[in-house]
Amino acid sequence: MRFLLALLLLFLSKSLSASNYDWGKTGHRVTGAIAEKYLTKKTKRNLDKLLNGESLALISTYADEIKSEDKYRPYGPWHYVNVPFDSTYEEHPKSEKGDLIQGIDHCLKVLNNDNSSKEDKIFNLKMLVHLIGDLHQPMHVGLSEDKGGNDFQVRWFGEGTNLHSVWDTKMIEGYGMSYKELADNAARLTKKQRKAIAQGTHREWMEESRGLVKNVYDNTKKGEKLGYRYSYDYFDTVRSQLQKGGIRLAKVLNEIFG
């Protein structure tokens, strides 16, 4: 009886913490798998040396997996950035604890520094892969007042949840495909289209995501019952963001390691 109770408590704790996962494991792995399709041969060789053969899909969830360790808690604010819609990132006061943009900036600085240790490069590479994914999950560039949608309560097919969780995991899980299936079935794009997506900086990509999250807030009400119609309206956006994240991650990695 005690064993069954322990299992139940473990399941509940994992279920409750799932809403804090950024894109969820499946979403991050989709972005990692798509990125691998567009890496140069030189980039692949250099990443293979650093990661000892581990894939981008595998390491993409690392930044979430370390959240429970006290020594990694200072990296928590790197997963999101909150800016009011009537302001810009440059104008708005920066968090002293860091944010998603500052986190990416730091990772790039370490990875582009020839004097960085191998250990530091591996850690910051794993973080970068994850953070580029977060950058394309609209709720991670949301509003501070509802903690990026975590305090925005809705119902998903009759069950209580929050808007952040719907975008992180619920829509993706509801689609019923593995990360590999989603990556393999990403939209077919021409070289010109991929080049257009890869243009810009991570600050510009954040602004693009902010435009999406504003649309989400404009079209979702607190307490609303969400389900098939919501997925019909927004799942193509989810797939597009996962693909953009992969293409842009590949661009960043090719610039560093190619």
From TrEMBL:
- Keywords (A to Z) from UniProt: Disulfide bond, Endonuclease, Glycoprotein, Hydrolase, Metal-binding, Nuclease, Signal
Which chain positions lie within coiled-coil regions? Answer: none
Extract the Gene3D superfamilies matched here.
P1 Nuclease
Molecular-function annotations in GO: endonuclease activity; hydrolase activity, acting on ester bonds; metal ion binding; nucleic acid binding
Its signal peptide is 1-18
GO biological process: one example: DNA catabolic process
Name of the protein: S1/P1 Nuclease
